[in-house]
Design a protein that fits this description.
There is one protein chain. By secondary structure, this protein is α/β, with parallel strands linked by helices. 50% of the residues are buried. The chain binds adenosine monophosphate. Residues 174, 291-294, 314-319, 343, 408, 410, 422, 425, 431, 436 line the site of adenosine monophosphate.
């Protein structure tokens, strides 16, 4: 009986202990090895103070050893918190502070970051223990200022922790509009529900070779990991360094004979732009899935024309509803390349509701706000009842209903065919290179810089692979000189590189609308004209 995510691993290890489980370059772990290594590390984590429900922050590159670390946290009864170790230390410190971990698992790539956190006092305050993954099979797993233990001496038998499906498996921090990233709580049951549906729907099997492209702090990666474990398949991790190298990615799909590819659309767009896919390329590939943003129809047509043997599926959903909530398998190569691809119909156990402002369903063909209900819904944001109450509402089913709905912030419309179309965001969240970004978080960082009087950040869709170009307008008090380059350098201390505005405009004062609010619409039009002169001319 599968009730926890790690049960998938145990089941596959019992069935096919010698089959490959994790692959990256020359590193390879079989199911038997993965089961034993995770058991040992879980025991070590218990010894290091990982009690049931304790958070373990993971600051490590995507490698098989980091995956061992994540699963070991679950086996130790903990909750893992994967954090982008490429983020500036100030942002990581905020996340670590909110997550309140009892253990931090870091690898060599994060040494400096951990040092910065200690210097900043973000770690010492709470007696956090720091372990470092050293990537040796059955070797010493941790070296730390506090403890040095040799995992090889520990038993490789399962711990048998008494956890239940509704316990939290991980916290995923997404961009927050007030400047503080929000920790989405994801339970074992949330992930199990999606994986069970996906394994059935896609027919995933032990002979599959599955890509692991998204970074581990992105919820899409949880499907790669637990989908592969559930199917007893081989997970081929794509090193972060290759993630935007179109030729290397094509080689990896070809040479690894991958049967499943799953990524954000911008990667597919980038590969199409560099024309790295030949006719009937990737003969082993059976399905190609994307999620996280709109895949432009001409890009899909590029892929479908070249790979007629592959099944193409659009998956849609926010982190708060776990990996994806709806799907649409594209039946034939689109003829009309101006028609968008639907986000389709709900996955098993989920529902998509298109509601008006009084939470009544909108008629077919009318635009409304998109809400999600069902098995994927997170219990809410970590230690933030207010934000949870603002986004997860009681379902409008009448009194007594305990069902909840999640307000996605997306606009949508249901067609006569019952398929749902995504029509963009209703708020200030954008996608840039696949990353979910709250413009408010960038504004908070710019405003925090000395010498900035006011600022506004907008996203401009330039039709390129990036998705949106982030643009910032700012003003300074009289007599204060703040060149855009200097401001950018300051802001880069607070935000990861993918959140940094690419365009800056210094103004005497930002334009205001009739309510005295910054006129973001006007600013956006200005940036549109600057970035896409042809489009700007049309708008005028
Ligand atoms: P994230 O939490 O990073 O997965 O971002 C969730 C948001 O990404 C959704 O609310 C949508 O705005 C967008 N999104 C996710 N999947 C798709 C898709 N297939 N098509 C268009 N937008 C998507």
């Amino acid at each position: 009986m599968i009730s926890l995510l790690q049960d998938y691993l145990l089941r596959s290890a019992e069935r096919t202990p010698d089959s490959g489980a994790l692959v990256m370059g020359d590193d390879r772990l079989t199911y038997g090895e993965l089961e034993r290594e995770t058991n040992r590390l879980a025991r070590l984590m218990r010894e290091m103070g990982c009690v049931d429900g304790a958070r373990v922050c993971v600051l490590a590159a995507k490698t098989p050893w980091t995956i061992v670390g994540l699963i070991a946290v679950l086996k130790a009864g903990g909750v893992y918190v994967p954090i982008d170790s490429a983020s500036p230390s100030a942002r990581v410190a905020r996340i670590v502070d909110v997550a309140d971990p009892s253990l931090i698992l870091a690898d060599g790539s994060a040494v400096k970051l951990v040092d910065d956190l200690i210097d900043a006092g973000a770690l010492s305050r709470r007696n956090t223990r720091i372990g470092s993954v050293n990537g040796r099979l059955s070797g010493a797993w941790f070296t730390s200022a506090f403890t040095c233990a040799d995992a090889a001496t520990l038993s490789a038998e399962p711990l048998g922790r008494p956890r239940v499906s509704d316990d939290i498996a991980h916290l995923l921090f997404t961009s927050g509009s007030t400047g503080v990233p929000k920790g989405v709580m994801i339970t074992h049951a949330n992930v199990l529900a999606f994986v069970e549906w996906a394994v059935r729907y896609f027919g995933m099997k032990p002979t599959d070779r599955i890509s692991g492209h998204p970074p581990l702090h992105f919820d899409l990666s949880t499907f790669d990991i637990y989908g592969a474990l559930a199917a007893g398949a081989e997970l081929h991790l794509v090193p972060g360094t290759l993630s935007v190298n179109p030729r290397a990615l094509a080689d990896l799909i070809r040479d690894g004979e991958l049967t499943q590819w799953f990524s954000v659309p911008s990667v597919l767009t980038y590969m199409a732009k560099f024309d790295v896919v030949t006719d009937h390329d990737f003969p082993a590939l059976e399905r190609l899935l994307w999620c996280g943003e709109v895949l432009p129809t001409p890009v899909l047509a590029y892929w479908m024309r070249r790979l007629p043997h592959v099944r193409f599926t659009n998956l849609y959903g926010p982190t708060e509803a776990t990996i994806a909530s709806s799907y649409y398998t594209v039946p034939i190569c689109p003829v009309d390349e101006t028609a968008p691809i639907p986000i389709g119909t709900p996955c098993d156990g989920e529902d998509l509701l298109i509601l008006d402002e009084t939470l009544r369903p909108t008629p077919v063909g009318e635009i409304g706000d998109l809400y999600i209900s069902g098995v994927g819904l997170s219990p809410g944001y970590w230690r933030d009842a207010e934000k949870t109450a603002g986004a997860f509402l009681p379902a409008p089913n009448g009194p007594g209903s305990t069902e909840r709905i999640y307000r996605t912030g997306d606009l949508a419309q249901r067609g006569d065919d019952g398929l749902v179309q995504f029509l963009g965001r209703a708020d200030s969240q954008i996608k840039s290179r696949g990353y979910r970004i709250e413009l408010g978080e960038i504004e908070a960082a710019v405003n925090a810089t000395e010498g900035v009087r006011e600022c506004a950040v907008v996203g401009v869709d330039t039709g390129g692979f990036e998705g949106n170009t982030i643009c910032c307008a700012f003003s300074t008090p009289d007599g204060v000189e703040l060149p855009a380059l200097a401001l950018r350098a300051e802001v880069s201390r607070l935000l990861p590189a993918y959140m940094l505005p690419a365009r800056w405009r210094e103004m005497d004062a930002l334009p205001k609308n009739v309510n005295g609010k910054i006129d973001r619409k006007e600013l956006k039009e200005w940036f549109v004209r600057e970035l896409t002169p042809a489009q700007g001319a049309q708008q005028r």
